[in-house]
């Protein structure tokens, strides 16, 4: 994964090597002044290899998960046209029975460490995101970073954005490409969720199969005690059965890595969806602005020609209470003219905004698609390699057992 | 006592059992072959016992004599060979195959073809082919048990099957049962004593097995053992038979455990298979919404399907070959325990009678009746037969389980090999595409720079 990112090397990555090296437990008081235990992660920054130089000691700082979340929210709000890389899951989901759902479980923490490093590398290798100042400060300023983020005022934008994203609205002429993308994203989300759920069930069952074989180990051992010639063969075969039963733990632990790769793209679909929604919003606003402008123009025309095709309160009241004076009419026309000009400005702005958004977003989307195809193919390859390794282990153990049996 | 020179042994043919030299008392004297004994060549040089007499009067006692002599010598299997491999008969071959369904107005049932090839003179023809059903095998076994109570009779597959639960006419059931019947018959035909039983002869050769006729051919030993008075209670079982009993109990327990484990594994595998199938279909459906990833995803779906097939094959195998053999041995153990019990009874009767006779002698000098000696003979014969059959059973058991467990391991290896092959061919497919893409992808990016 690091290879493919370096290929796409941004200015930032050319200068820096980024690692999430360790995880540590801390206790402290939280915002409501209660004691809590949480995990912090050590970020190491090293200048990238220069010729002939010895690698310098890294700069380090500690961050906890909630700070990563804050960074990501900032990026989401600031770059609404970019598919923001996702964070590893907050809580363990799609678990099969053996995995602890506890956030402090060492295996979970380790996998999260890898996921966080992944997140940083993806941002650092992104042509747009890697240039962000706040991101840079996240990597370098342990203390002052939080204030810096809040100072950007992104929270206000966040609130309004959240509001708009959850609002129901319909776009009259949806952009076909975005519609298709949203649909694809929803499908991908659904299929990966399904896959992860079933994979967890499969893992659970396979665990059962392997572990039951451990019982053979015990019974062969007991049986060998009453046998003469058969004893040795049975006893050693029993040991191999124990080995077989024990091997499933490592096998399934390794498979979690594959699940994590799938999960990343599951969460990516949320990011894609939100870009599509943002586009819809902009499109909608553009349509509204255009509609509003058209309405005003219509009003002006009617006012000028004296016809009332569109209902207006002014028109109604003037009908009921008598015509207005030419001066009144003049001033109204002027106000409308002003409004129309403003409206035209707005439409122009919105149009530009929309076009800019589409251009920038679609650039990123194309990148994303390539990255997705590449990453997922690699994930499938590594999954196949894992399966082969599992088969080889199985062949080894059973061949050994077979030899023991044949010596009975 | 040495067994370096093979001996022909006296056939008890025409003599009543009481006149046969007691094997233990005659230990030092060589028995010269009687006029009606034929020494037939075995596989190597050992003597195969042939009963030269007409079928109507079998001689289990002489068989006991043979085995008793061999039994007393511990050097026999020092070279690790199966001591009874060469005393097994090689002139009687039987096979059970070709199941067919018969439908009549009264019932529907399966018959099997029983083929026999033999050079024995007890048989009129060298070859036979008859059709028999399970009932007939059951009849045979009962007759063998009755007429040779001192011997271990191999077990039959289960008689009763729950009508609603198991399909008596399904291919798997019939196949499994047939293999077990074949094994049963082969074991009987290989047994140096049982193979000469007239009921076996009738079973193999008669056109119509008239079971009601009940050939009145019970041996003298058979008769007397059958009619042992039940009033005697055994005091002390000799240590060697105690050891047998203990072994059987423990072995029975272990087999039961193995059976349960095997069944549990099959269950877990079946549930795993269900989930795995669904897993494969999700990959296939995902492939439908992808372009570049379509082929790789279909490939994965295909691999998963292949693994499902491999697992199915292995599970079927376990169900058909592994479990039935285990169950068969459990039945075998049951029948062996029965024989041990009968042996106990025979000893109890002897000791009881002896005690009574001794007391009377002390009282009024009545001599010990010949009957008591008869009982002693019976008991000794029983012990000898049992010991001989025990050794043979142990040896067969070792072979059977070696084969069974090696087979199980082998099936597992094959299963994993199939899966590995599938995944390896997928990787080749995926990696080819990858190198192809890597070059094109890079240039795309470079363009944008």
TrEMBL record, chain A:
Keyword check for rRNA processing, yes or no: no
Return one GO MF term.
Answer: phosphatidylinositol-3-phosphate binding
For the biological process aspect of GO, one term held by this record is: positive regulation of autophagosome assembly
Keyword terms, alphabetized: Protein transport, Transport
Q: Which InterPro entries match?
A: AH/BAR_dom_sf, PX_dom, PX_dom_sf, PX_SNX4, SNX4, SNX4_BAR
Tell me where in this chain the PX domain is found.
19-145
* Record's GO cellular component terms: early endosome membrane; plasma membrane; SNARE complex
Q: Which family does it belong to?
A: Belongs to the sorting nexin family.
Could you identify this protein by its name?
A: Sorting nexin-4 isoform X2
Q: What is the lineage of its organism?
A: Eukaryota, Metazoa, Chordata, Craniata, Vertebrata
UniProtKB/TrEMBL annotation, chain B:
**Segments forming domain PX:** 90-211
* Pfam families in UniProt: PX
Q: Which domain of life is it from?
A: Eukaryota
Q: Where is the composition biased (Polar residues)?
A: 50-61
What are the alphabetically sorted keywords of the record?
A: Protein transport, Transport
Q: Which residues cross the membrane?
A: none
In Gene Ontology terms, what is a biological process of this protein?
protein transport
Q: Name one GO cellular component term.
A: phagophore assembly site
Region (Disordered), start-end ranges: 1-61
Q: Which PROSITE patterns match?
A: PX
Q: State the coiled-coil residue ranges.
A: none
Q: Mind listing the GO molecular function terms for this protein? A: phosphatidylinositol binding
Q: What is this protein called?
A: Sorting nexin-30
Species of origin reads Pundamilia nyererei
Encoding gene (name): snx30
């Amino acid at each position: 994964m690091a290879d493919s990112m370096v290929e796409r090397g941004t200015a930032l990555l050319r200068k820096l090597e980024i690692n999430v090296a360790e995880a540590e437990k801390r206790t402290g008081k939280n915002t409501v002044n209660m004691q809590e235990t949480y995990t912090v992660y050590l970020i190491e920054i090293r200048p990238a290899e220069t010729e002939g130089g010895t690698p310098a000691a890294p700069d380090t700082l500690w961050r906890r998960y909630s700070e990563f979340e804050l960074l990501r929210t900032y990026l989401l709000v600031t770059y609404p046209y970019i598919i923001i890389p996702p964070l590893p899951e907050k809580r363990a989901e799609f678990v099969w029975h053996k995995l602890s759902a506890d956030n402090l479980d060492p295996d979970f923490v380790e996998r999260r460490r890898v996921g966080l490093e992944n997140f940083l590398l993806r941002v650092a290798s992104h042509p747009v995101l890697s240039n962000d100042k706040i991101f840079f400060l996240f990597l370098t300023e342990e203390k002052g970073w939080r204030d810096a983020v809040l100072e950007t005022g992104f929270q206000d934008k966040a609130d309004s954005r959240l509001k708009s994203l959850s609002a129901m609205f319909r776009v009259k002429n949806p952009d076909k490409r975005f519609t298709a993308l949203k649909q694809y994203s929803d499908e991908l989300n659904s299929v990966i969720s399904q896959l992860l759920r079933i994979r967890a069930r499969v893992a659970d069952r396979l665990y059962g199969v392997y572990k039951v074989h451990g019982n053979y180990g015990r019974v062969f051992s007991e049986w060998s005690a009453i046998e003469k010639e058969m004893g040795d063969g049975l006893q050693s075969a029993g040991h191999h059965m124990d080995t077989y039963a024990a091997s499933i733990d490592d096998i399934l632990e390794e498979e979690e890595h594959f699940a994590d790769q799938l999960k990343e793209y599951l969460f990516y679909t949320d990011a894609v969806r939100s870009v599509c929604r943002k586009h819809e919003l902009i499109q909608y606003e553009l349509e509204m602005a255009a509609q509003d402008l058209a309405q005003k123009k219509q009003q002006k025309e009617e006012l000028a020609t004296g016809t009332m095709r569109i209902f207006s309160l002014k028109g109604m009241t003037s009908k009921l209470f008598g015509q207005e004076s030419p001066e009144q009419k003049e001033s109204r026309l002027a106000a409308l003219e002003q409004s129309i000009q403003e409206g035209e400005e707005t439409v122009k702005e919105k149009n530009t905004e929309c076009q800019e958004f589409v251009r920038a977003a679609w650039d990123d989307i194309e990148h994303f698609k390539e990255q997705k195809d590449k990453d997922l193919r690699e994930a499938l390859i590594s999954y196949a390699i894992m399966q082969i390794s599992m088969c080889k282990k199985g062949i080894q153990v059973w061949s050994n057992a077979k030899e023991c049996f044949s010596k009975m | 006592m040495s067994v370096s020179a093979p001996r022909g042994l006296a056939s008890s043919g025409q003599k009543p059992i009481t006149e046969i030299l007691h094997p233990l008392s005659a230990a030092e004297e060589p028995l010269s072959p009687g006029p009606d004994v034929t020494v037939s060549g075995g596989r190597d040089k050992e003597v195969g016992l042939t009963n030269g007499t007409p079928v109507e009067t079998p001689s289990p006692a002489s068989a006991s004599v043979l085995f008793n002599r061999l039994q007393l010598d511990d050097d026999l299997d020092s070279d690790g060979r199966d001591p009874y491999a060469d005393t097994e008969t090689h002139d009687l071959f039987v096979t059970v195959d070709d199941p067919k369904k018969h439908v009549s107005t009264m019932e529907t049932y399966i018959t099997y073809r029983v083929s026999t090839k033999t050079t024995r003179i007890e048989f009129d023809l060298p070859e036979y082919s008859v059709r028999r059903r399970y009932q007939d095998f059951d009849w045979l076994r009962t007759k063998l048990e009755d007429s040779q109570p001192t011997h271990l009779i191999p077990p039959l597959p289960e008689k009763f099957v729950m009508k609603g639960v198991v399909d008596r006419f399904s291919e798997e059931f019939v196949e499994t049962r047939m293999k077990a019947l074949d094994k049963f018959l082969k074991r009987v035909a290989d047994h140096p004593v049982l193979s000469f039983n007239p009921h076996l002869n009738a079973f193999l050769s008669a056109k119509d097995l008239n079971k009601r006729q009940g050939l009145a051919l019970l041996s003298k030993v058979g008769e007397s053992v059958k009619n042992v008075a039940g009033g005697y209670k055994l005091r002390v079982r000799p240590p060697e038979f105690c050891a047998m009993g203990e072994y059987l109990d423990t072995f029975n327990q272990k087999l039961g455990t193995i059976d349960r484990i095997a069944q549990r594994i099959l269950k877990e595998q079946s549930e795993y298979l269900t989930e795995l199938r669904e897993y494969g279909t999700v990959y296939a459906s995902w492939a439908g919404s992808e372009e570049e990833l379509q082929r790789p995803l279909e490939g994965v779906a295909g691999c998963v399907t292949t693994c499902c097939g491999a697992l199915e094959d292995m599970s079927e195998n376990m169900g058909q070959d592994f479990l039935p053999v285990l169950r068969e041995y459990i039945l075998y153990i049951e029948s062996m325990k029965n024989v041990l019990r009968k042996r106990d009874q025979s000893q109890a009767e002897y000791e009881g009678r002896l005690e009574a006779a001794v007391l009377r002698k002390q009282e009024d000098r009545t001599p010990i009746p010949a009957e008591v000696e008869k009982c002693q003979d019976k008991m000794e014969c029983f012990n000898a037969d049992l010991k001989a059959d025990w050794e043979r059973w142990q040896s067969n058991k070792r072979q059977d389980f070696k084969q069974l467990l090696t087979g199980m391991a082998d099936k597992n290896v094959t299963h994993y090999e199939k899966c590995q092959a599938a995944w390896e061919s997928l990787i080749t497919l995926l990696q080819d595409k990858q190198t192809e893409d890597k070059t094109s992808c890079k240039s795309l990016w470079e363009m944008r720079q």
